Amino acid sequence: MPGIRHITLPAGFSASGVACGIKSSGKKDLAIITADRNVAAAIVTTTNQVVGAPVIWDRQILPKGSGKVRAVVINSGNSNVCTGKAGLKDAEAMATQTARLLDTDPQKVLVASTGIIGKRLEMSKIREGISAAADSLSKRRDSDALQAIMTTDLKEKSAVVQTRIGGKTVTVAGIAKGSGMIAPSMATMISVITTDLAICPRTLHKALKEAVGESFNAITVDSDTSTSDTLVLLASGAADNKKFPPASPQYRKFLAALKEVCHELARAIIADGEGATKVIKVNVSGAKSAGDAEIAAKSVANSPLFKCAIHGCDPNWGRIVVALGKSSAKIDPEKLRVKIGPATVFSAGRGRDGKFDEKKLSKYLAGDSVEVSCSLGLGKARYSALTCDLSREYITINADYHT
Amino acid sequence: MPGIRHITLPAGFSASGVACGIKSSGKKDLAIITADRNVAAAIVTTTNQVVGAPVIWDRQILPKGSGKVRAVVINSGNSNVCTGKAGLKDAEAMATQTARLLDTDPQKVLVASTGIIGKRLEMSKIREGISAAADSLSKRRDSDALQAIMTTDLKEKSAVVQTRIGGKTVTVAGIAKGSGMIAPSMATMISVITTDLAICPRTLHKALKEAVGESFNAITVDSDTSTSDTLVLLASGAADNKKFPPASPQYRKFLAALKEVCHELARAIIADGEGATKVIKVNVSGAKSAGDAEIAAKSVANSPLFKCAIHGCDPNWGRIVVALGKSSAKIDPEKLRVKIGPATVFSAGRGRDGKFDEKKLSKYLAGDSVEVSCSLGLGKARYSALTCDLSREYITINADYHT
Above 50 in pLDDT, residue B290? Predict the structure, then answer.
């Protein structure tokens, strides 16, 4: 079924997604995204000490995080994590079969899996799926690929940005999946970004690491970092621009476009966070150091009490101040200023209840997007974290889900 | 109304609790616990950088955490936090009035407050409450005092332990309140422990710090550390034992009794955690260092996904392994062994699904007490953390509660 295009919009890529029976629902569960030839690739993976077999495989073929790659094969419904040596052989078999069908080397095929932990993949189904997906590769099946990587996601997440670099139009496009177990610490659950830019693999990797720091690494649904986080960036070179070094104006333009795609995908993950009804942006400024700014913002973004208060549309600045104060980031309540949306709710060590328009603030909090800004007054560092509210629905999803 | 005795069981103490109108429910909200004369006292308070006015007051009068004290005056319903200089004056006024009525110095009266953040205390009500509480001090009103310190608590939390020290019977008894915003990092929300032991203040403080490390500091309901955590230990000396130095057998006996009281109170707080239906003990052993053991245990105990799984009676070892792996504590999946209750569910890098009695485990998980044991296989350090499950009720309590 043809649908909207995104990851095949940059020239030089094809994609497909099929249902091969890994998901009991019968929904699509196997995707291939491939370049027309081996292209520049960069990857970042989870910092969890327990990693899935696909992550081990990807690190083996791209030990420095960049190199030349032809394709990514992805299944959903089973993450192939904690499956021992047999699981690693399964990941390798996925790469080998895909490589054979695309007429390349297994070392040129990245693998990603997402879903339940601890079960062996049903390889007969996977083999049929890879075969069918390779047969249906096309420039019009982007949505199939995107649907095939989803698990508890309710919404499809994609982003496209175009820019001019060296006189050529360059397109950057991405897809992502992720909804729970989201506190990425290198990348999100699974995301593939394509571009037609001509760029060397090392520079591509540098840009990816820069873009991830303030997008995927700045989001949290539930503070739980997955074992399977994988973000792949492929650059086909089809835009035919002249290659450029890092720190050049062209690099900065590409980085800006890449950041925009990463931000959009990261925000989409939060908006689709398990049980989420609101996206919450927590800005910290005036921190003593960059590390302090990040720690303070994430301490608020991960506070269950804060997230419940926002769910209940309650301007409970006390919980924000508590979350800042419990963190290891330096805080001085006398210098702290907290805003919820348009209203300054805390300053000079005290709440400002009665001094702001409560009706206006209530209306603001009833919306689906809330911004909290904490000015620490101690320095110049800043950081923004994205999170969602904590609802009964999160519990329902995660208590009623059974292994 | 007379009730069961606990904190006045050690000789030399009286207590009372009254309703003075701080709580809109009309329930008791002001307590005094007093010794017959100035006695040895030790205190530990929150590590949150934002602290309530009562904590500031208590630190002023016991700058080293120990000294001589007559009484503690406590109100619930309003925590007197983020109330500026005026709030500090209110705390001082509570101590001054209580001291006058007990015929001692304000510097001998500790103050604690718990409840809403950011509102000034209604001091006319507090003054009437202190007056009424001082008038009704008795050896039979322990339950009144306990009820008067409760906020969202559903259950009364008290503990009594007796031991023989130097040929004398020594009693250690405590009360505590706390249910949400529980991740103590020095002490719990509010707890008062009394003993008739004769002991010097510095030794008392040493024992308190030792006991807190593996009891109150090892519990978490929601990872949010309060601004008001205060634990006071008063020793009347009425048991008339010979004083002893730290590291003596007598010290160790007292410490054991004190730890038992702290453990019982800490466990009671978890059992009454907001929305809790189960108490979960997370044991980590075989860690490389004591720090690693604590970090690993708390990473599991604070994982929302793990807490939801236990709420749903799901033996989801994947979420335990994920929570261990995301922490900064050193983990090697190949050496890791995870037990849920009686069943080994993970070893040698793999789940053991199908290799344990699932029916038996389901029955175990349906109970109100669950133990998870993680053997890291990397060293000898161990730590146990206590937490509760995460339920829809937690969200209801914390999203529908309005400031």
Answer: yes
Instruction: Read off the pLDDT of each residue in A323-352 and give the average, rounded to a whole number.
Output: 92
A397 Cβ neighbours under 8 A, 6+ residues apart: A152, A180, A274, A275
Chain B positions in Cβ-Cβ contact with residue A403 (cut-off 8 Å): 309, 314-318, 353
The active-site residue out of A151, A188, A203, A225 is: A188
CA distance A358 to B255: 51
Question: B384: which strand partners?
Answer: B283
Instruction: For chain B, give every domain's residue range.
Output: 13-271, 279-400
Window 158-217 of A, Cβ < 8 Å to B:
180-181, 183, 185
B323 to chain A, any CB pair closer than 8 A? The answer is yes
Sign, CA torsion A149/A152/A156/A160: negative
Nearest to A332 by CA among A384, A290, A291, A375: A375
Beta strands in B30-65 (DSSP E): 30-45
DSSP for B346-375, please give it.
EETTEE-TTSS-HHHHHHHHTSSEEEEEEE
The answer, yes or no, to whether residue B74 has pLDDT greater than 90, is: yes
- Is ipTM over 0.90? no
Restricting to B residues 238-297, those with a Cβ less than 8 Å away from any Cβ of A are: none
Contacts of A92 (CB under 8 A, 6+ apart): A57, A106
Note the residue count of chain A. Answer: 403
The verdict on a CB contact (< 8 Å) between B326 and A49 is yes
Q: The domain A13-271: what is its CATH number?
A: 3.60.70.12
Q: How far is CA B205 from CA A239, A271, B114, B201, in A?
A: 71, 49, 23, 6
Lowest-pLDDT range of A356-360, B292-296, B344-348: A356-360
Looking at domain B279-400, what is its CATH homologous superfamily?
ArgJ beta chain, C-terminal domain (3.10.20.340)
Q: Note whether A369 and A250 are within 8 A (CB).
A: no
